[in-house]
Design brief:
With 548 residues, this protein is of the alpha/beta class. Helix content is 22%, strand content 25%. Strands 7-10-6-11-12-13-14 form a seven-stranded parallel β-sheet, with helices on both faces.
Length: 548
């Protein structure tokens, strides 16, 4: 990355590239601040109602990262550089622009509102790297036919491998959960009848191509995303049933299959942000980065410390916002982890065969900070998938094991209403067959048992002796707390604004019985969204309030 006071060598590099035919150059520009154009009190206006509900349920306060980049700064950059906008990132407080004349970036080098500039991408007709490939086993071998095999068909072994059928048997199939998939393309999803269940029912709630800047994710003849999507969404009883066949989905293209440049990590972060704003619960990423096409320097194992790369930073922030980030470890073997699979907050997934032996290609850590990665593994050596036809076939890689875990995690979360992404991740890890031991770095804690994870979460104590309500909601001036206790308990309430600032607090020991208590709301309280956090005995309840 180069900053203001640009080194001569960086300038020479850029100018040397201008000679290429019909080039375009991508630059990441990070701003120093957000120019005070918005208040944190406005943060809720940039999120969907579903996203607000997830924040409220997890008691996650809004902060400056939830505010967009400065429109004034953005306008200045585009005017000075004569560039075109590729994307913005509110979390990184940055934008990525494309320039036909790379020297135009010098026009913003000394602008006081710019913190840094980095050259992150390059395109022209001659610059096409090798597209990523998927190792496919085409033997047509069928899975075992015992237990529920007749219903699951080709997906039976990978389902039973993690005891996922335990959730399906309870009617838990992902209903009401929202999963985002980041990949290279989803060709065939809109044409193959195998995907009719999710496509025609309107459960693909959002699509975005962050590479091309449009909503088309189906027509580029790229289908690695289709492969990963199939492990979750296909619902063909007796042929193939995915892990979360009744969940809703967002399909995001962030991977540019024609080249490998750092801008793809910016695409990824932009997709994380969109997922957050939509209220996504689980994000599945079967992509990772370590090497880039020249002239971009490649990453090293030391860079995979869980918090340094743009992709890892984005994944960690996404987890802080309440999403469960399920990310591939990579297929680089003993080279080590790919990013963002190194991210501290990610649930990183490796690849094993039916004997729980790690695949030789499965990347492993720990990451450079010493965190166990991958934490868990699933069947991807091989696993069965669907693409262009209704006939499943075997394919290998962490790209296959990762989305399976994401789909089952969504089902587990559905079965465990009120739990946080941290609790879901912990339950998955602790259900794994080696936990708490750590025998091989390739395995992490082993293969999860989703039946056991469900039992563990269901067994966590939930206080049933308390009824809580804050009313009226929405409110204008008066607000009341209604508490019905079957036994005496200490009751406290804290009401905060979206920035986490305390508006009022109250604490008292109450006897068993019904209590209706007035709350002293400041008369100066402005219209907007507030959060009431109530403790009663062992129960914690977070309620979203609307002030009119």
């Amino acid at each position: 990355m180069w900053r203001k006071g640009i080194a001569a060598v960086a300038l020479l590099l850029m100018l040397s590239l201008v000679a290429d035919a019909v080039p375009r150059y991508a630059f990441r520009i990070v701003f120093r601040d957000k120019n005070n154009e918005h208040s944190v009190r406005e943060a809720s206006s940039f999120l969907s109602s579903r996203a607000l509900e997830r924040r409220a349920q997890n008691n996650i306060a809004f902060d400056e990262k939830d505010l967009p980049v400065s429109k004034e700064y953005l306008t200045r950059v585009l005017a000075l550089t004569q560039g075109s906008l590729h994307l913005t990132s509110k979390w990184l407080n940055s934008c990525v622009i494309w320039l036909e004349d790379s020297s135009r970036i010098l026009s913003v080098a000394e602008e006081p509102y710019i913190a840094s500039v980095a050259y992150v991408g390059y395109k022209n007709e001659e610059h096409k790297g090798a597209a990523k490939t998927l190792l496919v086993h085409s033997s047509g071998a069928k899975y075992k036919t015992t237990g529920n095999a007749a219903f699951y068909g080709s997906s039976w072994t990978q389902t039973d491998f993690v005891k996922g059928e335990c959730l399906h048997d309870k009617g838990i199939r992902g209903q009401g959960k929202f999963i985002a998939i980041l990949d290279d393309g989803f060709h065939y999803v809109n044409t193959n009848p195998a995907f009719d269940s999710v496509f025609s029912s309107g459960r693909i709630l959002d699509t975005r191509n962050f590479v091309q800047g449009n909503t088309d994710v189906y027509s580029d003849f790229l289908f690695h995303g289709t492969v990963t999507f199939s492990t979750m969404a296909v619902n063909m009883p007796n042929i193939y049933v995915g892990a979360a066949p009744e969940a809703s989905y967002a399909l995001f293209v962030t991977e540019d299959a024609s080249s490998e440049t750092p801008v793809e990590m910016d695409n990824m972060v932009a997709a994380f942000e969109r997922a957050d704003s939509l209220g996504v619960d689980v994000v599945s990423v079967s992509l990772g980065y370590n090497t880039f096409d020249p002239p971009f320097p490649s990453l090293t194992p030391a860079d995979m410390d869980g918090k340094t790369t743009v992709a890892a930073i984005g994944a960690n922030i996404a987890a802080q916002k309440g999403m469960l980030m399920v990310i591939t470890a990579g297929n680089e073997g003993n080279w080590g982890l790919l990013t963002p699979g190194d991210a501290d907050s990610a649930l990183t997934v490796g690849n094993v065969d039916v004997n729980k032996t790690p695949a030789g290609s499965s990347s492993y850590g720990p990451n450079a900070s010493g965190t166990v990665k991958p934490e868990v593994c699933a069947l991807g050596q091989p696993g069965f998938v669907v693409t262009s036809s209704q006939s499943p076939f075997g394919a290998s890689g962490t790209s296959i094991s990762t989305p399976q875990v994401a789909g089952w995690a969504a089902c587990l979360w559905q079965a465990s209403t009120g739990k946080t992404n941290v609790q879901i991740k912990r339950a998955i890890v602790e259900s794994s067959h080696l936990f708490p031991s750590y025998q091989l770095p390739q395995l992490g804690y082993g293969v999860p048992d989703f039946c056991q994870a469900d039992i563990t979460l269901s067994a966590e104590p939930i206080e049933k002796n308390v009824s809580l309500e804050v009313y009226p909601n929405p409110f204008v001036r008066e607000l009341f707390l209604k508490v019905d206790l079957k036994e005496s308990a200490n009751v406290s309430i804290v009401i905060s604004d979206v920035a986490g600032r305390e508006i009022l607090s109250w604490d008292e020991m109450l006897d068993a019985g019904l209590h209706r208590l007035p709350l002293e709301v400041p008369q100066s309280l402005t219209e907007g969204i507030y959060f009431a956090r109530i403790f009663a005995g062992r129960e914690l309840r977070t309620i979203k309030l609307f002030k009119r």
